[in-house]
Every structure is written in C-alpha cells, then in structure tokens.
Amino acid sequence: MADKRTMTTSAGAPVSDNQNSVTAGERGPVLLQDYQLIEKLAHQNRERIPERVVHAKGWGAHGVLKITGDISKYTIAKALQPGVETPMLARFSTVAGEQGAADAERDVRGFALKFYTEDGNWDLVGNNTPVFFVRDPLKFPDFIHTQKRHPRTNMRSPTAMWDFWSLSPESLHQVTILMSDRGLPTAPMFMNGYGSHTYSLWNDKGERFWVKFHFKTMQGHKHHTNAEAEQVVGKTRESYQEALYGTIEDGDFPKWKVQVQIMPEADAEKTSYNPFDLTKVWPHAEYPPIDIGVMELNRNPDNYFTEIENAAFSPSNIVPGISHSPDKMLQARIFSYADAHRYRLGTHYETIPVNQPKCPVHHYHRDGEMNTFGGIKTGNPDAFYEPNSFGGPVENPAAKEPPLKISGDADRYNHRIGNDDYSQPRALFNLFDEGEKNRLFSNIAAAMGGVPGEIIERQLAHFDKIHPDYGNGVRKALKEAHGYEANAVPVTGKTPQRAAE
Ligand code: NDP
Ligand code: HEM
C-alpha cells in the first residue's frame, strides 16, 4: 500500500492522517493509543545529542586534498604522494561558545580535517593558530573552565580568564594571537589552519621526520575589529555559516595552500626550544615551509546534523606514514577525542556514514548499542576471534611504524622551569605594524573589563617581559577604556560578553 509518496510510521505502516490526533470525541481528550502522535513526540524529545564539550558551534563542508609536491622521501602516506587526490571533510568552530553562540565572537577557531585515505581515515584536528594556551594536558580542563560560564553568575568571566592566563605564562603566545587581528576572522575562508602539534612522517626506509602542517588561506586574511563584530552580531548570529555555505553554493570554492615544515629526527635534540612544546612554533628561517598541495572545499552537506554534528574528528586517527610525537598534549588528545565520541555519538560512532572510512574495514569488535554493521567485520561468521583457522583478517607488518626513541625517568617534570615563554611572542609582536599593535592593546583592554587590578598587574608584568612597548601600550589602552591606573581595583566597564549582547 505504501508507494513512494505515502508517508509511513518508522515501522513502515502507512499513515492515514498526519493532521489530526485520535481523540475521544471531537473536542478531545487525546487517546493514549494514538501511537503516531506518541512516536512523533518521543522522536522530538531525542533530537538533540550532547553538544561538543568544547568547539560546540561549527560550520563544515566536504572537499578534496590534492597533492602536487613530492615528499615521498619523507613518508609512505598514500594521501601525501604526488598527484593523489583524497576526499575530505572540514569542520571549523569557535572554542568556548555553545551551539547557539554568535559566529563573529573573538575566539580561537577550530580547523578540523578528516581525510578519507586508502589506508583509513587521517584526521588533523587543529586550530587557526600554530600554538596553544597550555603545554601540559593536566591544565586543559582548568583552562577550558575559565573560558566557559562561571558556575554562580552563569556568565563568562574575564576575571577567571586573566587570572589563569596571568598565572600561566606559557599562554602568552596564544593570548597575543587571540587578541590580535587574527583572533577574529570574518569567515572560515579568510583564515589559516595549523596542525599545531608536531607530528611525524616515516618513509619506506623506516626513517622518521618531525613535521608541522600548515594550511594557508588562498582567499587572503580578513578580520573584524571588535566594533565591526558588534555590528555583525547585531544583524546575524550565523555570519560564518552564511559565508561558507554561500560561497560553496555560488561555486566559489575556498582553497588553502598546504605546507609542511620538516625537521630531521636528530634535530629535536639541537633546537633552542623544545620542538614538541605546543606553545612554540618552528621559525620559518630554520625550517622553511614546503608547498605540497591544495585543499579545496566544494560541497555543502545535504544535512548539517548527519554530516557535521555527527562528525567525529580525532588526533588518534593516523595512517601508515604519519604518526605522533612526544608532545604531551597530543597524547592526551589521542585518548580524549575517541572517548568524547563514544559518549556524544555512541560506541559505534565510526559506522555513522560521515565517519566511515572509504576503504575496507576488518576488525573483531562486536555487539554493542546500535550495532548496525551486522556483527563482526571479518567477512566470515566463524572468524570472530583472532588468531583463527577460518581465514579471518590478520595483522600486516608493513603498517608497522619505526620505533619512537624516548629516554628519561618517569616523573612529573615542572614544565615552567627553563622554558622561554617570551621570545616567540616577542617575534610575533615585532611583526605587527603600528595599527595592529594598537588594536592588540585595545582588544586586550576591552577584554579586561571587570578584572581586579592585582590580576591585571600580574598580566602587565608578562607583557613587559615580551616587550616594554607591549606592556605600556596595554596600560595606555586600559586608561583610555576604563580610566585604569596601576593597581586600581577593579577595572570598570563592560565585560566582553556584555559588550556583545
Ligand atoms: P616569519 O616571519 O618567517 O613567519 C611569520 C609567520 O607569521 C608567517 O607564517 C605569517 O603567516 C605569520 N603572520 C604574519 N603576520 C601575522 C599576524 N599579524 N598575526 C599572526 N601571524 C602572522 O617568522 P617566524 O617563523 O620566526 O615566526 C615569527 C612569529 O610568527 C612566531 O613567533 C609566531 O608567533 C608567528 N607565526 C609563526 C609561524 C611559524 O610556523 N613559524 C606560523 C604562524 C605564525 P602568513 O604566511 O599567513 O602571513
Ligand atoms: C574538540 C579535548 C586540545 C582542537 C575537542 C573535544 C574534546 C577536546 C573532548 C570534543 C570532541 C567531540 O565531541 O567531538 C581536548 C583536549 C585537549 C585539546 C583534552 C588537550 C589536552 C586541543 C588543541 C587543539 C584542539 C591543542 C588544536 C590544535 C579541537 C578542535 C575541536 C576540538 C578543532 C573540534 C573538532 C570538531 O570540529 O569536531 N577537544 N582538546 N584541541 N578540539 Fe580539542
């Protein structure tokens, strides 16, 4: 009876009336036996899934990675061989805002990429900045708590942010980027992406090379000032969604130049900085970026929920020829993301179409909630354990990565001792022209609204160590914005959130 146009229940039975509930008499009440009504209401109650604990607001699209350069001497990764084109998915995001947050808010932007390679999914879950706020994963939840809502006021707290940052000088590099022009891009197409961590490449000789990935916007950089962003947010909360969706619908596909920096394995012992420290970049003069290809986004999702909300990106997803590094933050992320996906999307999140590898998948995991892949993935019902005598899939030593050299005693090493937190932010500060410096100062002053003087003074002392002009510039901007004099407690003025309202 149910032809193509006949609406059905989810059990497939034809629906005779989708306008009127079953009632006892014309005026009601509704009868409990109206399963069609109950099913509709029950499904609606289950439409939302937990939002991402961070990076909840996002925008995404499908595309392709085209490799034009030749780094085959460094890696066997199939997706990085000359001429190879790999389908991919990108999701951009803000970090702190909830799913309904306005797009044009000052924040670091997530830059998450999933490459569907012949050897499985390779995910690069980076940001639009080459560094991060903390270098030890033990501090990540603390840091994120300062960015989210205060438990009592239920508002974001500039005091918490600057208290944490001023007590964590390793954050200075990222804070400087966040408060600079690049902290508020106008749309995803107008920002760079960075893998941020040091990863490694390995080749057919079993040699390992450290690597950093960069994605340079080919649309050019575009930023909002705080004042412009207020105007934008006043008109639309969805400026990024509109821009990204619109440009792809118009056939004007955004592109990024893909670059790598390569460091020979032994150099890691020689650099003046720890190359696995996520608060540091590798200076281009020492490790020049090498062009290897182009990433293009060319297809909007047909369904935002199934293709973007359901997307599960994880730094644990690597493929032969690409691997991790000793970066402590990276190890924590290898655990954290898949754990988050099992909670947010369910045990079998990798069977959701957008997360499915586009290559054969053979494993011995079985059963579990919402197992829709028909038992085990070995192709033989008798091969449900390993080893077996029934031709089930076996390991392939060709996928073995070279050993990772490590040394040292297991201990809790103080990461704040002997670490230069000032030189690289200084190199960045020195890159800024006068206009950029002034906007940096005023953005910082605006973000310090409501913060107690003692916290401001602690932060100013760090800015002074980067460059006296930095500290003094912020002092002047604080005076202009809030009439702040040294040690005045607290600074008056609107908090950034209130200003955005
Ligand atoms: P370089 O002058 O060789 O590189 C400068 C880099 O900074 C370029 O990648 C450029 O990106 C980027 N940049 C330029 N202007 C700005 C800006 N206003 N805000 C943020 N980034 C900007 O110097 P180094 O490699 O020695 O790095 C100096 C500083 O530049 C670093 O301390 C770091 O803060 C920053 N930086 C360095 C990167 C690296 O990988 N070495 C990457 C990004 C930033 P673009 O090409 O897009 O213009
Ligand atoms: C999202 C944890 C550091 C970039 C997430 C999520 C978690 C998480 C749990 C939500 C995942 C989901 O529900 O799908 C952590 C931990 C970190 C860390 C524990 C440090 C120890 C970083 C760093 C970067 C980063 C350093 C960038 C360089 C992102 C991005 C997303 C994200 C882009 C959103 C991914 C998407 O679009 O789905 N992070 N994170 N995170 N994180 Fe991190």
Notes on the protein architecture:
The chain has 501 residues and is of the alpha+beta class. Helices cover 27% and strands 15% of the residues. The chain has 13 helices and ten strands. Strands 1, 2, 3, 4, 5, 6, 7, 8, 9 and 10 form a ten-stranded antiparallel beta sheet that branches. Strand 6 and strand 7 form a beta hairpin. Helix 11 (453-466) packs antiparallel against helix 12 (468-482). 39% of the residues are buried. Residues 494-501 have low confidence and may be disordered. The protein binds NADPH dihydro-nicotinamide-adenine-dinucleotide phosphate and protoporphyrin IX containing FE (HEM). The site of NADPH dihydro-nicotinamide-adenine-dinucleotide phosphate has 18 residues, from helix 9.
